[in-house]
Amino acid sequence: MKPVKTGILVADGAHARVYLNTGPGHGISEVKEYAKDIDLKASRDINTDRPGRSFDSGGEGRHAMEPPTDAKRHAKDEFARALAEKINAAMTAGEFDRLVLVATPVTLGDLRQHLSKQSSDNIHGEIAKDLTHASNKDILAQLGSVLAV
Questions:
Q1: CATH code for 6-39+70-143?
Q2: Are the C-beta atoms of residues 71 and 46 closer than 8 Å to each other?
Q3: Which of 18, 19, 104, 120 could form a disulfide with 8 if both were Cys (CB 3.0 to 4.6 A apart)?
Q4: How does pLDDT run across 2-11, given as a tens digit for each residue?
Q5: CA 98 – CA 94 distance, rounded (Å)
Q6: Where are the domains of the chain?
Q7: Is 105 helix (H, G, I), strand (E, B) or coil?
Q8: What is the tens place of the pLDDT at every residue in 15-26?
Q9: Residue among 10, 3, 42, 6 at smallest CA distance from 135
Q10: Could you tell me the end-to-end alpha-carbon distance of the chain, in angstroms, rounded to an integer?
């Protein structure tokens, strides 16, 4: 019987690690080529230019315009998109048979939005926690609720 390869994505809005589990008793091993970090700056540091100005719709006044989206939030969504693309490619290539997502609640939502149908259909479990800085032992302890490790 062929072992089931489970990809375990551990992420937050700026850091990601991917682990592989090949069945009960085998634990997890980090897949280094999937490790990804971004330097996430505060929104005030990203938006350093003065906001644009607009004429008042009913008169002669002018006022500053607010940016349409928060720059930090946008950066986190783009990070989730890039992660989802890598996971989608790995699923298509057969590197994983199923997925377990371990991420902050907001990142889980972003990931779900960007995962392909194939990847979404193969999600075996989700844990809404930030374990990006946890040790392998701590991650294994949390995975017991969704995966036999």
A1: 3.30.420.60
A2: yes
A3: 19
A4: 788 999 999 9
A5: 10
A6: 6-39+70-143
A7: helix
A8: 999 999 998 888
A9: 10
A10: 18
Residue written as tokens 């960007």? 114
pLDDT in tens, 84-121: 999 999 999 999 999 999 999 999 999 999 999 999 99
Helices (H), 8-97: 43-46, 71-93
Provide the token pair at 70: 């928060």
Q: Is there a contact between 82 and 88 (Cβ–Cβ < 8 Å)?
A: no
CA–CA distance, 49 with 86 (Å, rounded to integer): 33
Say what the pTM is: 0.79
Environment class of 32 (CB within 10 Å of its CB; exposed 0-12, middle 13-18, buried 19+): exposed
Residue pair 115/88 in contact by the 8 Å Cβ criterion: yes
Nearest to 29 by CA among 48, 45, 51, 7: 7
Would you tell me how many other CB atoms lie within 10 Å of the CB of residue 12?
A: 20
> Cα–Cα distance between 107 and 47 in angstroms, integer?
22
